[in-house]
Amino acid sequence: MTPTDDPRDVFRQRNLVRIGRALHLPAQPSAERKAAWIAVAGAPRTTGVNSAWGVRGRLGYALASIGLAAALLAAIWLTAGHTKPVTAAVILDRFRAALAQSLTIELSDIDLGSVSVNGKIMLEQGAAAGLERGFAIVHVAFKSSNPEWCDLHAKLVIGQQPGAAWQYGCGENVPPGTTWDKLLEDAPDRRMPLRDYLKRDRSWHDFWMHPLDGFGQLPERLRLAYGESSVTYEFFPQQRAVIEQLLRFLLPLGAGTTADALIADLSGAGAKINHEDENSTYVLSVSGFQRLGTLDLAEPPIPDASGLLKDYVKEILYDTSKRRVWSTQDYVTPALRESGLCVNGVFPRDMPQGSPEDLLNWLRERALDVRVTETGSDTMRIRVTGYPFDLDYSGIDWQREFVRQARRAAVLEVSYDAKNRAIRQAILKHIGGDAGRIRLTVGAVQLDPAWLQAEYWVAPRE
């Protein structure tokens, strides 16, 4: 065959070679059979109905012959290189087995609105079933509402090996030339958030149950000003819940305990198989799932707000000499925090402050309970319970829209090497926007032993 760059000609050539190996020419016909063929060819042709039937008969015979050849070609094409047909069940079964092997998991461009997430998780299987060594590093970027201030970056690092486990979290240095750089000019630590922490002697199971517990020091909303420039950062509970749910889904994969539930959820969803290339690679695409093992994509319910504010406490410090409120502090109940609702705990501007009596009378007309808990020479501490502040549903609305988008757009693509009967990789796409990806690569992980030492990550202090 003449050389060509057209890949279709390459496929045609391979197919012809395969057909040539499978089909053989018949033996040389005898003299009697040749004479019979000549006699039939020399007979006069008939006309009318019989002639039409003969044309249709010959046409049908030709079409049947073509169909037989096509079926033979398809059988050769689909069975060459492997003996088992490639079905969704076959690929999912191999995927289940792959989840008991060493895995490298990469999170990229997961956009959660005011924060974004990137990271890598490396799960190394030992000789026996189960996780031998584990490592994870997760970067969270807190997006700035004002580009003059820049985004704030924090990282969470987790390490486990036999006999040792630890968790470390810290902020990262702010870029030079930003308002943050000016604000921290004389600070000994140029990281924001400034505080870091190291926790040792925890199990990997503890980590995946509460992966962000060390991030609890970060405020849900941070507002700052420097000169005439101001900025706001947000990291509200629903964003933390989504990140924790993703990590609780990914961190235990190497232990092999969640594979059955994950495959069961995929088996019940819509699936299709695409043949990718001539190297017997197939891609199983699954979408329309409501959950993936521990990753639940159901919409969170809207909580009943009645009664949630009755135990909400606001403490006021009132300056009796200057006759004004100079600070307040919130005390949120566990029930209110778990509901996912936020309280817009700001008193109206027209709240009277001209005298302690005016302020207390105004509060008692509106709140369930108002008590003076401390009186100093120039301060008064007032505890206000059950004031009817407005409730903020924006976090719950965001989370409901996030899971709607994930159910609508998320696709899991599993690449299967049919020749070697092995899973190459799996990619969960469209998590937190179109660019969001979670990639699972099966096989030996490139895990530097130094990464499993907490001291490698702890930043030196001046």
Report on this model:
- The protein has 462 residues and is of the alpha+beta class.
- The protein folds into 2 domains: 97-292 and 399-458, no CATH class; 305-392, no CATH class.
- It is built from 12 helices and 22 strands.
- The protein has helices spanning 7-22, 31-42, 49-79, 88-98, 179-183, 204-209, 237-250, 259-267, 334-339, 356-364, 394-409, 454-457, and strands at residues 103-111, 115-125, 131-142, 152-161, 164-173, 191-192, 197-200, 221-226, 229-234, 270-277, 281-287, 291-292, 295-296, 313-319, 324-331, 342-344, 369-375, 379-385, 390-392, 411-417, 422-429, 437-442.
- Strands 1, 2, 3, 4, 5, 6, 7, 10, 11, 20, 21 and 22 form a 12-stranded antiparallel sheet that branches.
- Helix 4 (88-98) runs antiparallel to helix 8 and helix 7 runs parallel beside helix 11 (394-409).
- The longest helix has 31 residues, at 49-79.
- The radius of gyration is 35 Å and the shape is elongated.
- The termini are far apart.
Q: Can you count the helices?
A: 12
Total domains, how many? 2
Note the beta-strand portion.
Answer: 25-35%
Computed Rg: 35 Å
The percent range for helix content is 25-40%
> Which blocks of ≥5 consecutive residues have pLDDT under 50?
40-83
Summarize this structure as a short list of keywords or feature phrases:
462 residues, alpha+beta, twelve-stranded antiparallel β-sheet, four-stranded antiparallel β-sheet, 22 strands
